[in-house]
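Help needed: design a sequence for this.
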């Protein structure tokens, strides 16, 4: 890869997918114009395999970007992440690999979360978790264990990842300058075939009525106040009536006629 310069968008895909899952998002970001010219000079992606703990993947992202995002010609870095990629991205931005982290994002850059499970998933009960993991390949279990909590906003069940990522009573390293944004979805029926059974597990895990979710991630987790401890300007963004994977497509909310791409365009316009 040649040395990058100008504005750079980094895209991080979600759980058990690959960078091709973000082809529409990347294409949209590359097409955004400002004053007749492309807003981004480069749109790049980070691909990972969903078979190791999230800390390892986040560390790998920080390490891989250390040289890529180092050239002095880069004026701004924005990160767009979907689903599990948000936890990977936040680890790389806020924690890094021990010697380097992506944050603070160059040039007052921005982090945009699309359906991220920032407070995990409330499926830590042994029987519910056992049912949950049957919907995914066996090798993904280390990541799923990182996500499990005892109920809504409860303590982590199996690992310390969420505690380490979201320390209580502590502000993030870039709290005063970080620009965080979050978008969520709410239509589990649009996330077929997995949405309805996952929604039922949420119903069992959070009595008496479950949670509102997009077929994989609950709104309370995607729009969780833990983000407000990392960025003092964060506030809960829009929730669209679409499915989880629709967040990285131009699928529009039938109520508002807005897609996540429209929301991104509005954000970019507000940055300048």
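Sure. Designed sequence:
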């Amino acid at each position: 890869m040649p040395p990058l310069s100008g504005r750079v968008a980094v895209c991080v895909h979600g759980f058990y997918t690959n960078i091709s899952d973000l082809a529409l998002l990347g294409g949209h970001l590359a097409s955004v114009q400002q004053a007749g010219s492309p807003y981004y000079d480069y749109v790049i992606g980070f691909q990972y395999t969903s078979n190791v703990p999230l800390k390892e993947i986040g560390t790998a992202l920080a390490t891989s970007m250390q040289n890529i995002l180092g050239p002095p010609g880069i004026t701004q870095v924005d990160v767009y992440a979907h689903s599990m990629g948000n936890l990977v991205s936040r680890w790389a931005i806020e924690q890094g690999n021990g010697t380097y982290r992506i944050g603070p994002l160059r040039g007052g850059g921005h982090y945009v979360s699309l359906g991220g499970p920032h407070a995990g998933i409330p499926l830590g009960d042994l029987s519910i978790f056992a049912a949950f993991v049957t919907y995914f390949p066996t090798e993904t279990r280390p990541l799923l264990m990182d996500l499990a909590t005892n109920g809504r906003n409860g303590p982590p069940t199996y690992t310390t990842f969420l505690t380490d990522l979201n320390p209580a009573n502590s502000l993030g390293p870039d709290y005063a300058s970080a620009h965080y944004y979050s978008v969520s979805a709410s239509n589990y029926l649009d996330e077929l075939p997995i949405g309805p059974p996952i929604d039922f597990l949420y119903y069992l895990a959070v009595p008496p009525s479950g949670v509102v979710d997009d077929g994989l991630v609950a709104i309370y987790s995607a729009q969780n106040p833990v983000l407000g401890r990392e960025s003092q300007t964060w506030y809960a963004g829009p929730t669209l009536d679409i499915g989880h994977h629709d967040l990285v497509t131009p699928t529009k909310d039938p109520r508002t006629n807005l897609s996540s791409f429209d929301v991104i365009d509005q954000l970019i316009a507000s940055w300048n």
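DSSP finds nine helices and eight strands in the chain.
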